[in-house]
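Long-time lurker. I teach an intro course on protein structure, and each term I like to show students one example going from raw sequence to a predicted 3D structure in token notation. This year I'd like something fresh instead of my usual example. Would anyone be willing to generate the tokens for the chain below so I can use it in lecture? Attribution to the forum is fine with me.
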Amino acid sequence: MGFRDPLYWLYERRLERKLGDRDTPRHVGVILDGNRRWAKISKLGDVARGHEAGAEKIFELLGWCSERGVQVVTLWMLSTDNLGRAREELEPLLRIIEDTVERLQREGWRVNPLGALDLLPDSTARVIKEAGAATSGNHGLIVNVAVGYGGRREIADAVRSLLHEEAAKGTTIEELAERLDLDHIAEHLYTRGQPDPDLLIRTSGEQRLSGFLLWQSAHSEFYFCEVFWPAFRRVDFLRALRAFGARNRRFGG
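-- Reply from a regular --
Happy to contribute to a lecture. Here you go:
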């Protein structure tokens, strides 16, 4: 590790001491935004360098979350919209994602794929699926890898899955319409069986969710951080937890 400002270290320790159990969300979702802009302002020349730095930051974040007792982390690594990027940027990014997922598997994290994997190149989809299968029995923190993910697409896929399931049972559309409720759809989301996110973090200063966990975020707390993702620090994470703990969560009350 490089030199750390003593004042920064003291401030980080002070933040950590003030956090209590109530300041720990069960599920944290993160929009990993700002890799390209960080690469440009850092004068690295190639935006892939920004994606590589962002991939390294993921493992720091997972360590911080594990220390605090977070149960689930969802990482939005590639949206369905991102799949339309220029080939010279998209191909290196997909390779970085594959390398990151393989490292998650090697390090023993429990990988759970999120997204429309059928939209991805075969090699990328295969790496993600294999990591999910190989680590499904692992204990500890669940790492949702959202690649080829879009919130609207997830809801459409959930409804489609529900219709197929009910059709296989012989249920008519009229019968389904009569008893359909929110839980039926939730049971077919990519995150089924998991708690909804308590805290959603977006880096880079953008203050919108862009469809991230659209269904699941109805009662989430949002934290928008000015720093680009590769520059996200532990102190930024602790500030997000502090902000989360300071809010009175009324859930529509």
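Some talking points for your students: Residues 114 and 146 are 4 Å apart (CA to CA). The mean pLDDT is 94.
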